[in-house]
Amino acid sequence: MVAPTLISVDVSKPAWEQDPEKPLHNRWHPDIPAVASVKEGEVFKVECIDWTGGQIKNDDSADDVKGVDLSQVHYLSGPIAVETAEPGDLLKVEILDLGALETWGFTGTFHKDNGGGFLTDHYPEATKACWDFEGVYCKSRHIPGVKFAGLIHPGLIGTAPSKELLDMWNAREKQLQDELGTGKQKTLCSCLATRPLACLPEPAGALLGKLGHFKHGAKHASWAAVAAEAARTVPGRENGGNCDIKNLSRGCAVYFPVFVPGANLSMGDMHFSQGDGEVSFCGAIEMSGWLELKCTVIKGGMKLLPAVGPSPLSVNPLFEIGPLEPRYSEYLVFEGICVDERGEQHFLDATLAYKRAVLNCIKYLAQFGYTEEQIYLLLSCCPCEGRLSGIVDVPNAVATLAVPLAIFDRDVRPSGTALEMLAAGVRVETTQAKESDVTAAAIPYDAKLDRCVPCAP
């Protein structure tokens, strides 16, 4: 039986011009109305546009990534109300199938003045790689000599917050943002170029489903009040959201806490493939896609989730990994410890350790004919495996990054042959899409992005 399509999209239209009866949204708020409903056990299909709403094109310039409007992302399909779901329940969402709506996707790095990313202090300019899909495989004209199987998944899926939970998010994230530039600012900011420490509510760019868009069309009377407090979709939180977990694919089941009547499930940010960490920020193979889902309500099941924090709402979803994923047997694994590029010792800092592992990998693989920017893009979207390998032995946390050897058309392991190749000047095409004018500043469409703090020199 073919599952009915509950929400459909037209990839040729802007996000605010999708079906007016089932509009999209890009904020979290309990008052954003559900656009559809399903019964328990009903199998249904949902289509999603790419997270930027079509701002990125299949071409050889990174100017669209440089100028992307980040105030208007992520675009989500939903909310979908699940009949019988009530606050305190657990919503089991089974991912039965997924697919692409187009035959291509993209990976990018944002300009340092408009979003930046994990390694902005090393790679400050916008770059892009477009990928062509061939069944389960993908390859890119911008990173030649690489081919791998994708594991399609939604980067973002979650339930709506209650007003109490929303207020908790906004209060704690504002407190963090208020530390920016003060003595209380987190120590990681000294060795990792930061965007704003949090993405607080921003009416500019808000699309609130049936309540309206900030710029196009009529707005509901409650639009301004909701937009002023609706949470941005940038981070993952207690409701799930933008967790970018690459394993949420076919055969997976996710157990979401329910905070509002109907649960109000939403999803989007579809990925053809992603590496652990999605290190370039625009970093999976982003695409428009579809999901086939089934929902079950576990009455009172939220009690099964441990509340680790000051509130009974301080819970997080659980998920079961499905049985299907790309199979690779040989990996080259890179280590990183929490000593920064200046040689300064940090204490059990897992983020810095992972940064070092990624940098070690980039600079090693770049010796095999690639630019460092090409490897940065590749690590964000290929099926590499990130691990916290040591988080106990003071003072160094140890992180590892394992890269499948089979994705390359050459042997990149250390060897005498590799040294001979490097001495001979092995090269591949340096064809990643770049900015056309690196002297022109990027425009931070999100007002908060003009208050970024650079890393210490």
Automatic annotation (TrEMBL):
GO terms for molecular function: hydrolase activity, acting on carbon-nitrogen (but not peptide) bonds, in linear amides. InterPro entries: FmdA_AmdA, FormamaseFmdA. PANTHER family: FORMAMIDASE C869.04-RELATED. NCBIfam families: FormamaseFmdA. This is Formamidase. It comes from Aureococcus anophagefferens (Harmful bloom alga). The gene is AMI1.
